[in-house]
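Sat 14:20. Reprocessing the chain from the morning session after the first attempt stalled halfway. Input below, unchanged.
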Amino acid sequence: MAKLKLGPIANDKPVKVAVELPASLHRDLTTYAEILGREAGQPATDPVRLIVPMLERFMATDRGFAKAKHAGSSPRPPA
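Finished this time. C-alpha cells:
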C-alpha cells in the first residue's frame, strides 16, 4: 500500500468549494502572494489563486501518490 500524504477521498465529483482558512494560513498565503509577485515584478495576486497550484504541486511531489499512480492504482469508489 502506498504511503500518501492525504487520506482517502470520499467523493471525486466536481464541486465548488468554499473553505474557511485559519487566519495564520491566510496571512501566510498573502505573504507568499506578495513575495511571488515581487519576484515576478508584478503586483501581488489574490492569495486564493494560489490554492489550486499549491495543491497541484503538492500532489505532483507526493512520492507515494506518484508511485501508486504509475503502478495503475485507482481510487476506490465510496462505500
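The chain has three helices and no strands.
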